[in-house]
DNA sequence: GGTCACCACATTACATGCAATGTGTTGATG
DNA sequence: CATCAACACATTGCATGTAATGTGGTGACC
């Protein structure tokens, strides 16, 4: 029974696996599939009216991205980002956002600068109008996205992209600091100003500072509303061919 | 015709896909499959006497790792790392190795310190005995690997692991600086000393410096022996949903 | 009522079939 | 001799079949 769709558009840019990936990723990031949700390949394939192959591929990409977790004999599920994990993520992001801001400043042009201004303005508007958490997060993501794309460093862009995805996922679950959006916007302005002034050092400091404060606020917020304080929740790091060099007893 | 292997050990830790991945990764990193080599899924499946499914999965993981590149209608091939790409990679590594060294210093214990000493000693031995480029690279990798594992930061570990893989791949092709191994060892010692002294700042600086110099030496070496100087060989960055914020003409 | 064995189910991981599609080659033609 | 058209090939991407395996629930038994 070859489903209903008679000829599956194999045309340009179709790529069922990619579509499935994009769809699932978006659903996860928008919290439509909250952490812990089972990602059954057969079920998803059925719902999307495609076969299991592309879905399986999509799920594996999600796992690779850290947005999903493979549970031995129960399939995959949407990752639950715990606070410690998120904190560690911010530690890495701190360095890299700083680096991105520095590189971006060095490669900045008028168009990019204008673009950043637009984003800040839109962000301000969102906060003024009380556009909701989702709208804030979107502007926040755009700001960082533009900066890292300006860096011109492929590796940096890819890594930050992934880290932001993970962070985003975590933020849906944890953290509800009422002033956070406003503080973030103010810090973004500081980064922007340093960049506009053509000061890479200042831009790096400002960006690092921004992430550091995000991390601190996260810790503070979770301190008084403990969610997973017991147990370090230390993810077992499957020694990634680290044993290759082991030999002794 | 289910091949020869009658019952395919599906037992613990089997996982054909993973085995295939490990095998291919090792082959690529050891330069047994030099950059540009075609990675035909059917051919590999045939050679390994398994079906295409696990091989396809392995190849996709390699692509994700950046060790292989997907060529539209010709399958995948082992990535050719060009100098600019490698240089950019080192820029990122600079920040992250610095961070790793800092964090590692803060979490250092006697056992780890001893382990680092062992590696330095082994490295020294390799260089003294002229153990060859491969042996040097191995010690180099071990050193960095131990440090990042000490950092205790899962994200950092994963990212550096991948970056080191890519760098390793590039180094097979490019770069033949006769003194490089000796210089690297000396710089490793500096990092070690700062760590042993319990000085996170110094450790970070030393580690960053180390990578910076690797990068500079790379540029110098390729300056006089241009391999791919013509054409920026800029890898097309498949706009990674970056276009989401694009709109204007 | 609690414990344990059993059973049906869901899922994975792998094998394999198959149509669509671009590549490279070969041979015909101007 | 160069150009071009037709062809056979290899490969991908997707669909689907299947055995092995662990989960969860259900009922019997103590």
From TrEMBL, chains A, B:
Domain of life where this protein originates: Bacteria
Keywords in alphabetical order: DNA-binding, Transcription, Transcription regulation
Transport among keywords: no
Domain HTH gntR-type residue range list: 14-81
Ranges for region Disordered: 217-249
CDD domains membership: WHTH_GntR
Pfam family, one: GntR
Signal peptide residues on this chain, from the entry's feature table: none
Compositionally biased spans, kind Basic and acidic residues: 232-242
Keyword Magnesium belongs to the record: no
Record's protein name: HTH gntR-type domain-containing protein
């Amino acid at each position: 029974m070859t489903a209903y769709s008679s000829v599956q558009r194999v045309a340009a840019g179709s790529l069922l696996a990619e579509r499935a990936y994009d769809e699932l990723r978006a659903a996860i990031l928008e919290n439509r599939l909250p952490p812990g949700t089972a990602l059954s390949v057969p079920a998803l394939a059925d719902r999307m009216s495609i076969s299991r192959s592309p879905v399986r591929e999509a799920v594996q990409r999600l796992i690779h991205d850290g947005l999903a977790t493979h549970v031995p004999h129960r399939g995959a599920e949407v990752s639950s980002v715990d606070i410690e994990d998120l904190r560690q993520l911010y530690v890495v992001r701190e360095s890299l956002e700083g680096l991105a801001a520095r590189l971006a400043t060095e490669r900045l042009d008028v168009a990019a600068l204008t673009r950043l201004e637009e984003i800040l303005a839109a962000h301000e508007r969102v906060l003024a109008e009380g556009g909701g958490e989702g709208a804030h997060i979107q502007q926040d993501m755009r700001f960082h996205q533009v900066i890292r794309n300006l860096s011109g460093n492929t590796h940096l862009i890819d890594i930050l992209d992934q880290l932001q995805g993970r962070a985003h996922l975590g933020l849906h679950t944890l953290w509800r600091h009422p002033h956070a959006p406003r503080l973030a916007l103010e810090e973004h302005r500081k980064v922007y100003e340093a960049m506009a002034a053509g000061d890479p050092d200042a831009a790096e400091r400002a960006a690092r500072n921004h992430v550091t404060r995000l991390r601190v606020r996260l810790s503070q917020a979770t301190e008084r509303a403990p969610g997973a304080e017991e147990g370090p929740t230390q993810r077992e790091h499957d020694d990634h061919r680290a044993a290759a060099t082991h030999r002794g007893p």
